[in-house]
Amino acid sequence: MVALVFPALPTVTLPVTGRPERFPIRRIFCVGRNYADHAAEMGNDPAEAPFFFTKPADAVVESGSRIPYPPATGNLHHEGELVVAIGKSGAMVSEEDAQNLIWGHAAGNDLTRRDLQTEAKAARRPWDMAKAFDKSAVIGAVRPGPMPEAVLRCSVNGATRQQAKLSDMIWSPAAIIAALSRMVSLSPGDLIFTGTPAGVGPLARGDTCKVEIEGLQTASVTIA
Ligand code: MN
């Protein structure tokens, strides 16, 4: 047993649909611009190759949570997304082999401080403080098995803000994993936010934002 100067924080985990065990999280990767209509609404060319940013594992918020309006922003945005959960190690994998790395899926909300992201883009600075802040990764329970063939809907106080078929993604989960595995070695416990469709917008104090994907637990968060 290694002696530690203070107790290590526990591993961050998520509930698993239909099982008592929980899913231990290692890292969180996120894809930018994976739906043509969202790339267009942000003024970008959807034909670009996928690119990635990250959030820390301890940014995870479970569905049903109330979180404070985050500091340092006046323009908190929702981004409803499918989250892919990795269950096997892999590097430099083909798209065919990428499928074997997938353990399950969840609904997620890639909360974004849009004003900080806009400033970072203009100043050619990193996105970390816009994307990787505390409680920025709302994720529902992880469901083992294949990707649902479903519609993603993101609503605020019951009103639909984003709606798209998961099949509208430019890069499939397997293509994303193959591309990401050329950048880093993937490990069990890694999560990948797969990008958001058009309709991103602001959240205010008191709002409840739900990301629904048929077959998966809804990822719900309330801004206190
Ligand atoms: Mn996103």
Task: From the structure above, extract its key features.
mainly beta; Fumarylacetoacetate hydrolase, domain 2; eight-stranded mixed beta sheet; globular; 14% helix; binds manganese (II) ion; five-stranded mixed beta sheet; 224 residues; single chain
Question: How would you describe the overall organization of this protein?
Answer:
With 224 residues, the protein is mainly beta. The protein has a single domain, classed as Fumarylacetoacetase-like, C-terminal domain (Fumarylacetoacetate hydrolase, domain 2, Alpha-Beta Complex), CATH 3.90.850.10. 14% of the residues lie in helices and 36% in strands. The N and C termini lie far apart (41 Å). Bound molecules: manganese (II) ion. The site of manganese (II) ion has 7 residues, from loops.
Compact summary:
This protein is mainly β and 224 residues long. It is 14% helix and 36% strand.
Strand content: 35-45%
- The CATH architecture comes to Alpha-Beta Complex
**Backbone structural class:** mainly beta
Major sheet summary line: 8 strands, mixed
How many individual helices? 5
**Mind telling me the CATH superfamily name?**
Fumarylacetoacetase-like, C-terminal domain
How many structurally independent domains? 1
